[in-house]
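This part of the workshop introduces the protein records we will be handling. The structure tokens are whole numbers drawn from a learned vocabulary of backbone shapes. The record below serves as our worked example for the rest of this section.

===
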Amino acid sequence: MNDSHRIDRPDRAVAGADDLDVPTYSAATDSIYRRAGRAAPRAIVPGQAATAAEASATFADADLPKEPDTPTSAGQAAVQDPAPTYLPEDHSAPLASDAPTRAWEAPTDFTTDFAADVTTDVTAAGTTAAPAAAEPLTESEPAPVAAAEPAGRGTTDLGLLIVRLVAGLWLVIHSLAVFFQLGHTPGIVQMEQDFAAASYSYPAALAIAVPSAQLAAGVFLVLGLITPLFAAVATVVTGWGAVHAIAAAGVGLNVFDYTEAVWLPIVLFGASVALQFTGPGLYSFDFSRSWARRPLASAWVFVVLGIAGFVAAWVFGAGVNPLH
């Protein structure tokens, strides 16, 4: 028997046969075969006939023998699953198939965009649903902020109180002087005669209406009560008084010839109009009203009514041209 398998080099029996795969001797392989009760395959020399057993051991049993099966019970041997055989095709690209792929066999694509994975939903059926369109973020509009009240008005309310007292007290004092003929002020009778001499249409009615309106307007302005209405009444009587003073002076529109008696009703007329736009202030009975500090539409309405009232009173009550 040829013992070439015990030589630690390939058996080159024939020159030029370098392409043959000849088994070589290995101590580890030899011990495995001996424990299995089998003889290690010998080298096959080209040109030499090999027995059927040798050919079978060489080619059919080229793989190493397995450990003998261990019986689990009497008369039975444990059935051992054959070792898995790996073919070159196992490492190739997977074939396209509709069959589900096991998790450990699925190829991992590390180039996949992470953001796309997060926004993509996988349905139970295995289909990939398109990511829902994200609602665009819009800058929320700021809530309307009410105009902040001023921290303090300083001396504004005190100034309005002084204006009201000066204008209102003059109206009260002048009306009382007419009614009771106090000082050098002519009474109602003398006033009626003066109006008649000026050719006014209704001298008697004007002699009573004018001081009465002055008294009412003056009292309510001093108190700061229902200010828009009685400031309009003050606008009527002071405007009528200014036109009457201009007509009595007989100087027309020559402002440089106006005396103090002409300028005084003009100044009071301006003060009554101003109180419509400023309001009476906090030092008044109207302190809780909106027009006490922030008159809006009411100011324009009552200013227009006051001016229209004194024009109507002059046109229908006096009926003369004040600029003659």
About this structure: The radius of gyration is 62 Å. The first strand starts at residue 121 and ends at 122. The CA atoms of residues 119 and 131 lie 6 Å apart.
